[in-house]
Amino acid sequence: KLLLYYTRSFIMKSKTQERKTNEMTLKLTVSAVMVALSTVLSFIKFSELPYGGSVTLFSFVPILFVGYAYGAKWGLGAGLVHGILQMIFGISGATAGAGFKWYQVVLCALLDYLVAFGVLGLSGVFKKSIKNPQASFAVGTLFACVLKYISHFFSGYILFGGWAEWFFTEGGGMSYGSKILSAYSGNVLSAVYSLIYNATFSIPETVLSLVMVVILISVKPIRKAAGIK
């Protein structure tokens, strides 16, 4: 009987370990595919700003899905990898044009890429507290996108604030640019510039992402893949 007991225990542990290994392999595979898909979609752009930022074809959504389906740990990892890829493709031109020093390049990499794309993986933070999947994914997506916007804001305020006057006179082509310049100056002007500049691509991208995640989580196979019955 003792031998039978240990044999059964060994078989059960082996099956549990095998199941965990299979789950890990599945998550790794799905996360890798989602990162690749986000990278491809990031090249399909509806609009692009001259010094960073663009509105893409739902490029946030695959990372948002990983965060919602597998949790913050996996989502942050997928977002970080995606951010590294975006940094490789995008940071050189922007920082060279701005004449950045090495520490400014590091700060730009951190705020505009690693943190900004990493936080997209926090889309599942409301999954347990909000029972409706459409609502929980939408609120989580909005939360993650707002965090991304905040990261870009600090980057714009700290690193690109000196471009504010140019933006409101020549670069932005805004009718109210002169009013902003007459009303604000110094650090406040830099903050206003960063708020507006980053909002021009962050808001449309957020709206597109919200629409798509609600549609996706309404599809039964995708909802099942996200761990929702």
In short:
The chain is mainly alpha-helical and 229 residues long. It has helices spanning 2-41, 61-70, 72-98, 102-118, 133-159, 164-171, 177-183, 186-217, 220-225; strands at residues 45-48, 54-56. It starts with a helix and ends with a helix.
3D architecture notes:
This protein is mainly alpha-helical and 229 residues long. 76% of the residues lie in helices and 3% in strands. It has a two-stranded antiparallel sheet. Helix 2 runs antiparallel to helix 3 (72-98), helix 3 runs antiparallel to helix 4 and helix 6 (164-171) packs antiparallel against helix 7 (177-183). The longest helix has 40 residues, at 2-41. The chain is elongated, with a radius of gyration of 22 Å. The two termini are 40 Å apart. The mean pLDDT is 86.
